[in-house]
Every structure is written in C-alpha cells, then in structure tokens.
Amino acid sequence: MKEFYKQILDNNKKWVEKSLAIDPNYFADLAKGQTPPLLWIGCSDSRVPANEIIGAKPGEVFVHRNIANMVVHSDMNMLSVLDYAVNVLKVKHVIVCGHYGCGGVKAAMGNQSVGIIDNWIRHIKDEYRLHDKYLNSIEDETERFNAFVEVNAKEQVYNLAKTSIVQGAWKNGQDLMLHGWVYGLNSGFVTDLNVNISSNDELDEVYQLKL
Predict the structure, then answer these.
(1) Residue 74 pLDDT exceeds 80
(2) TM segments (predicted)?
(3) How far is residue 67's CA from residue 5's CA, in Å, rounded to a whole number?
(4) For residue 152, which of 105, 111, 101 has the smallest C-alpha distance?
(5) pLDDT digits (tens, 9 = 90+) for 138-161
(6) For 87-110, what is the mean pLDDT?
(7) Does the active-site annotation cover 122?
(8) Where does the pLDDT of residue 192 fall: very low under 50, low under 70, confident under 90, or very high at 90 and above?
(9) Is 47 a catalytic residue?
C-alpha cells in the first residue's frame, strides 16, 4: 500500500516536469482562471475519463460525476455544479455521458440490495418503469442492458432541461445546448444519442417554467 501511495506522488512530480518542459508557463496560465465551453456530467466509473475521451486539456471541461451520470432534481451537489457552470462560467454545452457496462444501470435492472446506494439506484429504476414496454421487448439481456444505458442518458438530458437553471438561461437568451452520449468501454468511441436540446419547446408544457 505504501509503495502505491509513493508511486502516485512520484507520478505527479513527473507529470509536472513533463508539462513544464513543454510549456514553462503551463501552470501559471492555468492558475489565472477557467473559461471552459463545456460541462460534462458523467459516471464515477474510473474507466470513463472526461478530458481524455474528447482530447481536452485541463481548463477546457467542467466536470461533475456520480453513479450512473444521474441528474436528480433534489441533488444539491449536481445543481450547484450546474448553476456555476451555466450562470458563472457561461458554458455553451452540457453533455450527459453514460457508458455501456455501467454498474449502476445494471444494478437497477435487478433487485439485489447493495447498501445505501439502493436509494440512489431507485432513481434509475424509475427510468426503467417509464420505458418498460420497450426494454422488456428486447429479449437479449445484453442488448436490453445497452438499451437501458442509452435510455437513462437520454432521460438525464431531459431532466437537465427541466431545471430552472437551464430554463432561466434560455429565457435570458443564453446559448446553451444539452446533449446525450454513451461511451463504449471496449471501443473508446462515443455514440451521439441524437438528443440535442436548446430550448424548453421539446418538453411537455407542465415542465415549461414561466420564469
């Protein structure tokens, strides 16, 4: 355990040296502030690194991660990140990126208790209930799993659009577009789910807030 801890400290030093060798002002420039054009809402899974997937450098992506890339309307952590990204950083894009093989989504397809996370996974189960006819029509379990990952990511994009934060930005004429992706662990490629929202016109009227 001590060797691993020492190794990651050494890795940090090597990274700093390598970065400074390329650009002596690298960290000095980063310290001046951030103006990322993108907020990434992704899964906590260690195999899904936001910056590396899209070839972005530090300072180019504002990131929020949780189990199964969820947008829960009562999650103050997520809402705080979203509010700062939209209203302070003025990001122009928000991507919700799920990934095939997601453990949280898989757990939501079964009834095995896995601890306190059961309460979080309940939100994902609710998404299954909304799409059960479609999902249950898929006989192959792996294909159904993949489809549920996609459905979940799409639903989180719509959950974003329902927030007063996003709708307030649209009302004020701010350029802001929401997107849904799924990342393939075994390929490295992302799949654009073709859910791209730039106004609340695509929501049911009950969700269109009069701000």
Answers:
(1) yes
(2) none
(3) 25
(4) 105
(5) 999 999 999 999 999 999 999 999
(6) 97
(7) no
(8) very high
(9) yes
**Tokens 């009227």 belong to which residue?**
205
45 labelled as ligand-binding? yes
Contact residues for 70 (Cβ-Cβ < 8 A; gap 6+): 78, 104, 120, 123, 124, 156
Q: Centre a 10 Å sphere on the Cβ of residue 65 and count the other Cβ atoms it contains.
A: 18
Q: What is the pLDDT of residue 1?
A: 77
Cβ–Cβ under 8 Å, residues 123 and 109:
no
Two structure tokens written together for 40: 């990434």
Cα gap 97→191, rounded to integer Å: 9
Given the structure tokens 């009834």, which residue do they identify?
111
| 151-to-23, 48, 57, 68, 94 alpha-carbon distances in Å | 43, 18, 29, 12, 17
At 169 the pLDDT is: 97
* Catalytic-labelled residue, pool 65, 99, 123, 179: 99
